[in-house]
Amino acid sequence: RTQAEMAHTCRGTINLSTAHIDTEDSCNIVLSNGGRTYHLKANSEVERQRWVTALELAKAKAIRMRNNQSDDSGDEEPASQSDKSELHGPLKTLSSKLEDLSTCNELIAKHGAALQRSLSELENLRLPADSGEKIKAVNERATLFRITSNAMINACRDFLDLAESHSRKWQRLLQHEREQRIRLEETIEQLAKQHNSLERACRGAPGLASGTASISSTAKGSVPSAKGEASDEDEETEYFDAMEDAPAFITVTADPKHHRRSGSNLSGASEGHPEDWNLEDSVFESSNQSSYNESTGKDLLPRKRRRSRIPDKPNYSLNLWSIMKNCIGKELSKIPMPVNFNEPLSMLQRLTEDLEYHELLDKAVKCESSTEQMCFVAAFSVSSYSTTVHRTAKPFNPLLGETFELDRLEELGFRSLCEQVSHHPPAAAHHVYSRRGWTLWQDITISSKFRGKYLSIMPLGAIHLEFHSSGNHYVWRKVTSTVHNIIVGKLWIDQSGEIEIVNHKSKDKCQLKFTPYSYFSRDVPRKVTGVVSDADGKAHYVMSGTWDEKMECSKIIHSSHGSTSTEGKQKTVYQTLSPKVLWRKYPLPENAENMYFFSELALTLNEPEERVAPTDSRLRPDQRLMESGRWDEANVEKQRLEEKQRAVRRRREAEAVEALEEGKDYEGYIPLWFERKVDAVTGELICVYKGGYWEAKDKQDWSVCPDIF
C-alpha cells in the first residue's frame, strides 16, 4: 500500500515498508510493526518459506513505492498532498501504458510504411491486371490499419487527460466518504460507551436493589454492550489467523404438501417427503424439560438426591490491572493467579461438564441412519459450550496426577474418569463409558494466551466418540474461546471457529461454523450453522441455532445453486422441511448469579463423595476453601500446593539429569490410569484409558496414587 492508502485504511493494517518479518519455528511467522503484531501459521515449512519470500518481496515493493512517493513534490497545500499522491499511482500507471501504446504505434507506422513501399514497388512491376488490383486492395487495408492505430492512441491520450481533469472531483468524493465513515465509527463508539455507563449507573443506583438481579441477568444474556469500550484499537494489538469462511448457504422452508409423492426415505438422498421426516418425538422431550433432574431413564435406578446450591460467592474487590500488567504475553498456566479469578471447580470438572446433555448420545444410539445420528452428535458437540456463556471465571489448574470421577452408572448409565497427565503443557485425558451403547474419550491440551484486552483459550486435541452396535466412530475438535474486556468493561465470552465432525466408518461429515460476535453483523449473536453430508458430499440436513440456547435440524429435500455473493462465492440454496429442535439448554438454577452461574450438574461436581481416589478434585483443599467462601485461606493453600508440585518437578528433573549422566533412559512422569498410544484414526500420540481405576475403587486399593494434596 502507498502512504496515502495507509493513512485511510481499515484498522489492523500493517505498513509492510516498515514491518519486521521473523520466524518462530518451522511453521510460524511473526509480522510486527511497532506494537502491532500478527502471528501466522503455515501448514508446512515449505509453505512458510513461500509466505516469507512473498512478504519480503512485497516489503521491498512497498519500500520502493514509499521512496517514489517521497520524491514527488507538488504546488498544492499539504492537506491535499495525500489525496494527490493517492491518485498519482493510477495516473502513473496509465501514463506508462500510454507510452507502451505509443511505442507500438511507432512500430506499426514504421512497418506499415515499409509494407506500403513494398506494395508500391510491386505495382510498378509488370504483373497481370488482376494481381495489381489485389495489391492495391492490400495497400488500402494497410493504410486503414495505420489510421485505426493512430485513433486508438489518440483515444487513450484523451482518456488520460479526462482522468487528470476529474481528479479534483474524485478527491472531494473520496474525502466525503472517509469523513462519513469516521463519523459513523465515532457515533457507534460513543453510543457503546454511553450504554456501558448507563448500565453501571443502573446497577449502582440504591433505589434499584430489587431489580438488580433481573437487570444483570438480562445484560449477561444479551450481547455485551461494554465491548465498545474495550474495542478501541491501539498499537499493542496482536492478530492471529482467522478461520476460513464456511461455504455460504441459504435455507428455505418448503411446504410439506408439495413433496408427498417423492420416493426416498429419511436416510436417502436429498429428495424426501414429510412422512419420512420421522425423528421420533421422544428424542425432543428433554429439550422441553425445565431442569437437569427431569431427564432420567426409565431403565435405571432412581437418582440419588444431590445438592442444589453452594455458598454464595463473596464480594471481594480486587485491582485486576495491578496483577495482570506483568503477565501480558505469558502462558496463562505459568502465571501465579489468586483464587479471586477462579471458580471452585477444576479443569477436570469443567471437562466433565461436557456430559451435561449426554442424553443426546443416548438418543443417537437409536438412530438407524448414520447422517441422522450425525445430527445428534453435532448437537452434542455444540451443547458443551452452553455452560460457558456466563462462566468467565477461570477453573483451577489441576495438579499433575489429579483425577476426577463422575460415577453415574446406576443413575444415568455412564461413568467418567479424568486425569491430569501433563502439567507443562497442561493436558488432561478423559474417558467415558455408557452402558447405553457409546464410549467417549479425549486427550485435551489447553493453550491460553493473555493479550492485554482479551484472553484466548485454544483446546488442542481430538474428541472421539464410538457407538458400540454400529461401530460408527466420530472425531472432532473444539473451537477457540475468547474472554473479552479483561482490563476494562464487563467480562464476556465468545466462541469462534469451525468444527468438522467426521464419521470415520461411513465418511459422513458435518461442518459447523461458530460465527464470532460483531457490532455490525445482523446475525443472531452466538450463531452456529452447519450442514450434514454423506460420503459423496450430498447434503442431507441443515443444522442451525446458537451455542448458548438450542440447536435445530432441518431435512433437506432439494438443493440448488443460487446467486453469487459480493465476495465472489456462489451460495447454495437448501429447500428444507420444518426444523426440529434437537437440543435446548436447561434453565439455570435459582440464585445462579451468586453461585458462579453454575448449572445443576456443575453444582454437584464438587459435592463430597465417599470412596473416591485420594487424588480426586473434590479433595483439593484450596478449591474446597474457596467454595466455602474462605478465599484468604484458599490463596495460602493454593500457594502451598503449587510449591509442593514445583518441588516434585525439580526432583524429577534431577533424576532425569542423573539418569542421563549414567547413560540410562528416563521415562518421566507416567500417568496412573491412562497410557500413551498412537491413535489409529488421527495418527496422534494420545492418552487412552488402560483400565484399573474402577476395580481399584471397588477394592478401595489406592496404593498407586501419589500424595499430591
TrEMBL record:
<keyword id="KW-0446">Lipid-binding</keyword>
<feature type="region of interest" description="Disordered">
    <location>
        <begin position="64"/>
        <end position="89"/>
    </location>
</feature>
<dbReference type="InterPro" id="IPR018494">
    <property type="entry name" value="Oxysterol-bd_CS"/>
</dbReference>
<dbReference type="InterPro" id="IPR037239">
    <property type="entry name" value="OSBP_sf"/>
</dbReference>
<keyword id="KW-0175">Coiled coil</keyword>
<protein>
    <recommendedName>
        <fullName>Oxysterol-binding protein</fullName>
    </recommendedName>
</protein>
<feature type="region of interest" description="Disordered">
    <location>
        <begin position="254"/>
        <end position="309"/>
    </location>
</feature>
<dbReference type="InterPro" id="IPR011993">
    <property type="entry name" value="PH-like_dom_sf"/>
</dbReference>
<feature type="region of interest" description="Disordered">
    <location>
        <begin position="203"/>
        <end position="237"/>
    </location>
</feature>
<dbReference type="GO" id="GO:0015485">
    <property type="term" value="F:cholesterol binding"/>
</dbReference>
<dbReference type="Pfam" id="PF01237">
    <property type="entry name" value="Oxysterol_BP"/>
</dbReference>
<dbReference type="GO" id="GO:0005886">
    <property type="term" value="C:plasma membrane"/>
</dbReference>
<dbReference type="InterPro" id="IPR000648">
    <property type="entry name" value="Oxysterol-bd"/>
</dbReference>
<feature type="domain" description="PH">
    <location>
        <begin position="1"/>
        <end position="60"/>
    </location>
</feature>
<dbReference type="InterPro" id="IPR001849">
    <property type="entry name" value="PH_domain"/>
</dbReference>
<feature type="coiled-coil region">
    <location>
        <begin position="174"/>
        <end position="201"/>
    </location>
</feature>
<keyword id="KW-0813">Transport</keyword>
<dbReference type="GO" id="GO:0005829">
    <property type="term" value="C:cytosol"/>
</dbReference>
<keyword id="KW-0597">Phosphoprotein</keyword>
<dbReference type="GO" id="GO:0097038">
    <property type="term" value="C:perinuclear endoplasmic reticulum"/>
</dbReference>
<comment type="similarity">
    <text>Belongs to the OSBP family.</text>
</comment>
<feature type="compositionally biased region" description="Polar residues">
    <location>
        <begin position="211"/>
        <end position="220"/>
    </location>
</feature>
<keyword id="KW-0445">Lipid transport</keyword>
<keyword id="KW-0472">Membrane</keyword>
<dbReference type="GO" id="GO:0006869">
    <property type="term" value="P:lipid transport"/>
</dbReference>
<feature type="compositionally biased region" description="Polar residues">
    <location>
        <begin position="284"/>
        <end position="295"/>
    </location>
</feature>
